[in-house]
Amino acid sequence: MKYRNLGKQGxxxxxxxxxxxxxxxxxxxxxxxxxxxxxxxYRNGINFFDCAxxxxxxxxxxxxxxxxxxxxxxxxxxxxxxxxxxxxxINDRGLSRKHIMESIDQSxxxxxxxxxxxxxCHRFDPNxxxxxxxxxxxxxxxxxxxxYYGVSEWRPVQILEAQLIIERLGLHPMSVVQPQYNMFDRxxxxxxMDVCEKLGLGIVPFSPxxxxxxxxxxxxxxxxxxxxxxxxxxxxxxxxxxxxLDKVEELVKMAAELNTDLATFSLAWALRDHRISSxxxxxxxxxxxxxxxxxxxxxxxxxxxxxxxxxFGFKKFSRKIG
Length: 322
Prior knowledge:
This protein is an alpha/beta fold and 322 residues long. The chain contains eleven helices and ten strands. 39% of the residues lie in helices and 12% in strands.
């Protein structure tokens, strides 16, 4: 395994992380597979495990916490998130001080730990003053319940506004952002990555395989595999357009030229930028994780990046004035 600093922070995270968004704990058999994936990740040097209080109604946190107790806590970088509803109460959601303080205690209980290494605001809350949210998070650092905090899917202007408040109030700094990022969704390259680099924030993207579109299991004019996410999940179903699948075919050819598969190729592509600290991947079974790990050692020649840019028609946004 290879490790990178979390932005300008001293903490190091594995280049691949294991996320719990799609962890299925609905049966003993599926829990066994999920447990095997976590154990395989640890054995291969993955130290970053990501979760959220809203995943499976808290069951994902409880399962991850139970499974990780077999490993030394100091060797784990553990994260969770707050924002989405965790109950039916009017205050059981958002980024109010009340919800943050109650949610962190429940997450710590679920995960069977005294602290979280990383704690994310799962989304931006327009109904709560930023001062309230940021002060609450800074207080959690003081209390030792979290070490670093960050945000997920916040716009650059929201992060910059938060930075001004942090500096003005002398709060503990923000350390990390978790955006979506993959070949089909490169919005962070236009502005967010530059902002993060300027502020020293680590970037730990989720969905680096575009909901499974970049795994190679979904191909044009081929039947959707039984049991795959596309048989029941709206997000991946919406991505299976003819245009996207045409691009997948070209990417599969590029990967084959390098004697690898599309998933490995796609993860290695996302790791090409030093500003990416870690990629949060999912694995419903150990074999998927084992395959993903090959991306760590895959070096993609520079000309492939240009070919990918051309395939997607990607060009970083710029505006010439005058």
